[in-house]
Amino acid sequence: MRLPSLALAAAALGLAAPQIAAAHTQLVSSSPAANATVAAPTRIELRFNEAVIGATARAEIAMTGMPGMASHAPMPITGFTAQMGKDRKSMTLQLRRGLTVGTYRVTWAAAGADTHRMSGNFTFTVR
């Protein structure tokens, strides 16, 4: 009776192990949050599921929508600084001034201990 229980437990652990080992860096939250509408932020905070390797962390900000301009190309936002948190699970993008009214896309890339570079993006709107 014990042998089948042990075999079942071992099989379950074997199925879970690859998922644990294959964990990659993911964005778990941001401020402003994805799809949020906010007043002009002066900083953007990214929070990851694991500590990231600082040299691999990158972020870009682009204005993708502006009132009165239905289809303009994304306009990169420059002049911000990026700083990793002490826990290496967060990154703060400090802007020189608050963002103007419009829609913005933040694109990020980072790698954790497994060194697999992951990336993603989210949008938010400034009112």
From TrEMBL:
Family annotation (Pfam families): CopC
Location of the CopC domain: 24-126
Places the protein is found: Periplasm
InterPro entries documented for this protein: CopC-like, CopC_dom, Cu-Rt/internalin_Ig-like, Ig_E-set
Gene3D superfamilies the UniProt entry points to: 2.60.40.1220
Keywords, ordered alphabetically: Copper, Periplasm, Signal
Membrane-crossing segments per the record: none
Coiled-coil regions, chain positions: none
Keyword Nucleus on entry: no
Any Gene Ontology CC annotation: periplasmic space
Family indicated by similarity: Belongs to the CopC family.
Protein's recorded name: Copper homeostasis periplasmic binding protein CopC
Gene this protein is translated from: copC
